[in-house]
Specification:
alpha/beta, 5 strands, 22% strand
Amino acid sequence: MIIMGIDTAIRCTGYGVIDVQSVNKMSILDCGVIKNTQSMPHSECLRRLSCGIRQLAETFKPDVVSIEDAFSGRNVKTAMILSLARGAAIAALAEKHIPVYAYSPKTAKKAAVGFGGASKEQVASMAAALFNINITDIPLDSTDALALAICHANAASRPELSFLLPKPV
């Protein structure tokens, strides 16, 4: 099963793609970021984000995608902008009929590292060990996306844990 994790943001969206053969056999296919500059209007950022997600889906053909759950915070404007980015990604995946599952950042980090408050560096260190790659090959902005992919893999590759899978978005 190929799982893509996405940590959406308007300026820098992280992604991680893993191949899951079994609970104990996972490999990383790619991880990185889709970057937009501060000077770009939001409409251009959303266009680039949806095009980038669409291209990743065409390249890796994920069976499922794991995305960060909707964010709510004190700054309503920030929450709205993050929701726009999340919506652009989900719409691009819906076009390809790829199911999307949402997890909170704490749930994803707990599944990947064992601690929901783990830092990006801690997630990168665990991912490097899990996938037997050099930690410098993991952009910090892609660590949460890798944690999301690992989180979904942990539940999806164990039939006895299928009750932990959320409903697709």
